[in-house]
Amino acid sequence: MAEVRLVDVQKYYGPFLAIPDQNLTVHDGEFLVLLGPSGCGKTTTMRMIAGLEEITKGDLLIGDERVNDKPPKDRDIAMVFQNYGLYPHMTVEQNMAYPLKLRGMDKAAQKARVQEIADKVELGALLKRRPSELSGGQRQRVALARAIVRTPSIFLMDEPLSNLDAKLRVTMRAELKHLHHELGITTVYVTHDQMEAMTLASRIAVMNEGRIVQLDTPQKIYSEPADLFVAGFIGSPSMNLIEGAVTNGVFEAPGVNLSVSVGDRDGVVLGIRPEDIELADGNGAISGPIYAMELTGDATLITIRHGTTIVCARGPATYNSQINATCHLKAREGAKLHIFDKTSGQRIEQ
Amino acid sequence: MRDRTLQYVLLIPAFLIVLATTLYPLGFSLATAFLDWDLRKSPRPGEFVGLDNFGHAVTESGFQNSLWVTTIFVVISVVLTVVLAMALALLLRRTGGLHTFTRIILILPFAMSPALIGVSYRFMFNPEFGVLAKGAAAIFPALEGTPWLANPDLAMGILIATDVWHWTPYMTFMCLGGLASVPRETEEAARMDGASTLRIIWEIVLPQMKGVIAVAAVLKTIFALKMFDQVVTLTGGGPGSSTETLAFFIHKVGFKWFDMGYASALAWILTIIMMAISIWYVRLIITDKKMATA
Amino acid sequence: MSKTVLWWLERLLLLVVSTIVLFPIAWMFLTAFKTPIDAYSVSLVFTPTLQNFVTVFSDPWNLGSMVMNSVIVAGVTVLISVPCASLAAYAFSRFKMRGRKFLFFLVLSTQFIPAIVIVLPFFLMFRQLGLLDTRIALIIVNLAIVTPFVIWMIKGFIDAIPRDSEEAAMIDGASRLRVIKDIVMPMAAPGILTSSIFCFILTWNEFLFSLILTRRDAVTLPIGLVNFRTERGDLWELMSAAGVMITVPIFIMALLIQKHFTRGMTAGAVK
């Protein structure tokens, strides 16, 4: 059990500044997800915690101890890799026992512990196999089992589900969540998949260009994105963003008039999620020709061209029309409207 | 141990070997190249003679002959080997029983001792009882009694043949490796566009193989410049001095004439030629990104 | 041209290639089992005999001692160069140390130094040290040729191993040396074996060093061939028998690691 703290951590690759002044505290026992597009520095951040990348400047603390100069083996962490990182020349049992062997545990105790964990993650029948004889899901399970076998104080997971097919990913996600609940070990989890982040995290740190742009609970990140990047990144389909101005408490853009509780100002961007837009009868506020209709099962995503912008709405599954036919949309009663400053991208509180 | 220390520690044993067995002798022979050191006169090195040994090379006919012989040998054997290897790789790239069989036996010439190759070709071209000499005479009676290895041009031809026989397999494997990294999709796309097989090879496959072919050619040039073993066992440099390659000539100067100073100077001339080519080669493999990921 | 014609043409070409490759080897093997009289005819019909092998192993040829020399020289060269080269290859593959490019370039380029340049000074040194005509001398010189090559080849194999497993082991609690011993070396084992055999073959076939540095005691097999060139002329049937002795072990090794062998040599050469 431990807390992880990054204090003014910087990472340079040669002259290239990958991580500028990172400050982050991972609370004891929490499940923190580092979320962001590829190249945003989330994996680098995790690898610095693991000790696989050197920290150029700043302090990394695990518990109360500065561990910058400690090799990975002395940090009491376990990690699950994107490509599993199994030992191909060892059996499942040897893979799982390896961390225990390195700690000098005696043979009998090793065997008992491996058996216990194997049963927990349903690997009991596969102990004698080699990784090459396992399916992707089974390999993932071995990687996980090897990580939990010695009860580390911190878990690191680097996109552990990204190599699995969509269905298995959902199952494993639930398993991970259950496991975290059961073991209560501080976990740092890297992913670019917002769905994974939303479902698993106690808190999410959204990263962009090496910086953490928002660190909060999934609910907050979804309902109050801190800036335009988070607004566009979280949610599928993405939040609609419409440029305009606010006059007398009304957001105005061509064809759009919505009351907001923000003082008058120019150069703002209004954000509204597709599920907050509904069909309007007759001439609604937002109208234009239909660009695409996508049935998702429980709903139809309707995308229309409104002037130069594109607006997406979540309509009923029964919706039926044609491409290029005119469609009218309006904001739902009580819709959540987000206002951002166009230049800084920052959220304007209402 | 910290990685920062360890990384150098790991290099030490290998570097001691390279230092002691390559760099030191290299320096030693450079120093010798500036001395008058004739082992027939004295076991000890003679006086410093500056660039005399190098100057001697410029005017000496034996060296000039070997330079000419080596050039002919290198040019012909490199062109033949690379062209044949590329053609063979294209032929072998598909799967099939005969393809696999051929691919497996191709290893044999490369694993065979070059000295032995020289011996076996010498045997096969013996005018009285050589199987190839006899076979040629059976098909073309005019060739009966041709003194294959006693004719300067034919001897050179056979020497080149042994070298091509020895090296083509290696180069074929290199080309096959290169072909494997040519994405199938580009060929399939061209086929969908209606290109014939020959056009696909010429316009789609070969342009993507440029890097591999360049590397193969340079590598083969380096190997050809070192050619020595077969000269000894096949022709002995003859008839006359018509197949005396540079390496063979240096050996003759050093170990028949025992002129260590001159031999060292010649060896350094060869080294400089080879280093120039290998620097070019290393550039090729470092700059060619595709080769790096292949 | 129709599809069938092309199909047959392709097979015909392959047969021609196979014949060109196999014929000289086959002819040597046949000759090795011929009596001297048969050897001097091109006939394929003959009564096979093992007499040539008996002859080459007895006085005055004594091929046995040459086999011994070849085995020891090639074996010891492999035993010294491969472990050293493996460590260096790992360092080159995994660490971005200062001067890495220069050092690697240095190693690469020594491979292209003509052997004759190296052997000249060694001849002079060994003469002074009284090491001429010893196996030690041959091993030392062979190391010069083989080591850079093996570093290069093994580096190719290690580069191809994903780092994930190594990093996993470091996090699981292994030190760097432990990682090399427990994870990297077992994973690179096929590559290291291939490189060892490659190195063995190079040393086994080596001719120039043996020609210059040995006379009687430390003579290796390829030089043994030259001995059959006597005043009475070339003794082809004995040369062939000796040729078979040189070739068979190498062919078996090469075929055993056939798959890795071809990959290894292209990996070594291309990367």
Quick one: biggest sheet of chain C? 2 strands, antiparallel
Oligomer: heterotrimer
Low-confidence stretches of chain C: 267-271
- Kindly report the average pLDDT value of chain C: 86
Q: Over the alpha carbons, how many angstroms does the gyration radius of chain A reach? A: 24 Å
With helices defined by DSSP (H or I, 4 residues minimum), what is the helix count of chain C? 13
Structural class of chain A: alpha+beta
Mean pLDDT of chain A: 90
- H/E element sequence of chain A: EEEHEEEHHHEHEHEEHHEEEEEEEEEE
Amino- and carboxy-terminal Cα gap of chain A: 40 Å
Alpha-carbon Rg of chain C, integer: 23 Å
Distinct helical segment count of chain A: 8
How would you describe this structure in keywords?
heterotrimer, A: 350 residues, alpha+beta, six-stranded mixed β-sheet, 24% helix, elongated, C: 271 residues, mainly alpha, 13 helices, disordered C terminus
Describe this structure as you would to a colleague.
The complex is a heterotrimer of chains A (350), B (294) and C (271). By secondary structure, chain A is of the alpha+beta class. Chain A has helices spanning 42-50, 92-102, 107-120, 136-148, 166-183, 194-200, 218-223, 228-233; strands at 4-13, 16-26, 31-35, 57-62, 65-66, 77-80, 154-158, 186-191, 203-208, 211-216, 240-247, 250-253, 256-259, 265-272, 277-279, 286-295, 299-306, 309-316, 326-331, 338-341. Chain A has eight helices and 20 strands. In chain A, the strands form four sheets. Chain A has a six-stranded mixed β-sheet with strand order 6-7-8-3-9-10, with helices on both faces. Chain B is built from 14 helices and no strands. Chain C contains 13 helices and two strands, in the order αααααααααααββαα. Chain C starts with a helix and ends with a helix.
